[in-house]
TrEMBL record:
<dbReference type="InterPro" id="IPR018803">
    <property type="entry name" value="Ish1/Msc1-like"/>
</dbReference>
<keyword id="KW-0732">Signal</keyword>
<dbReference type="Pfam" id="PF10281">
    <property type="entry name" value="Ish1"/>
</dbReference>
<feature type="signal peptide">
    <location>
        <begin position="1"/>
        <end position="20"/>
    </location>
</feature>
<protein>
    <recommendedName>
        <fullName>Stress response protein ish1</fullName>
    </recommendedName>
</protein>
Amino acid sequence: MKFTLATALAVGLAAQGAVASTWFGKPVYNKWHETELERWLSDYNIPYPKASDRKDLENLVKDNWNNYVVTPYNQWDAKTVQNYLSAKGYQAEKGAKENKDALINQVKVYWTETEDSANQAYGSVKDWIFDSWTDSQLKAFADKHGIPVPQPRQRDSLLKTIRENYQSAANKVSETAAYPGDWLYESWSESDLKSWLDERGIPAPQPSSRDKLIASVRRNSRLASLNMQSAYASASSSAQNAKQSLSDALLNSWSDSQIKEWADKNGINVPQGSKRNELLALARKHRASLMGDNVSGTVSSAYGAATSRAGNEYSTAANGFAGYTNWMKQVIGLQTGPAASFSSATRAASASASSASKSAASAYSQATNSAASVTSSVKQEL
């Protein structure tokens, strides 16, 4: 067979199409029920003829998908863009505050959503739509749909249980779940809906009605989830940095003999004649032992004494996602009422993480000043 240029182009285009199909897959809304397509269009105030067939509705969603889902900031006003940058911990660049195009260009630098990630996200709404709900709202949803609440009730386990039972809850009330209707918010009062919007700097629709409030919450829930993920990543990074600084402070407060004794107790081989800098390097290499379950009670106590000097916020945040969510609940008041605005949460998290980092930075001098008492305690029990 003669391989012509035309053949090569045809094969290339076919391969490109195959890659696009397997990599990105079909748009998720291709699988939506007709009522879900109509709901999505209504949520974004996109008019459609009432007599539209399913294909017409799908094409209308397709024409607007990128502008409203993949790059929604193109639809934001200047104030909304500024709020987003502020919530992410960034300041509008000089001279850009009143220039919407300049602000949007700045948002593009930090925006992480892509067509593929959006498609995956909307392929499993249950994985993120509950992220910004309060504990009481999650509990009310579980009670409403007969979902057993795990005990003790932790936010992570509560979210996990609701996500696992989400589809069955929708099936029981004969509702769609891919792009859920008002049934999802049946346990929310109008005050809850307004508070959710207000706390995130989103104007409530005017004139206001329950349907419009739910539509506004629903279309902004993906952004709320992305913002919370960003806050977690930022706080987690700060907590980890603080954790490392604190372990360094503790190690620096130990004598050479204490490091050797700790190493021996934890099965760490110390070469004969090791100098202090080599001992410290060896200890840092095995720093996980300082924080793990296998560490001795004495070292744990000494480490705990050092960490308490740097603030309890850091220690809680360092316990992984469960610890982070509990810490964030304390910071933004999730246990007792509606979630605080993402902007407020970020400021609180940043302030707390910053405080923890500053404390960690000064922990060395504090540990040094109190080295005598810590050393004495360790020596007495090792």
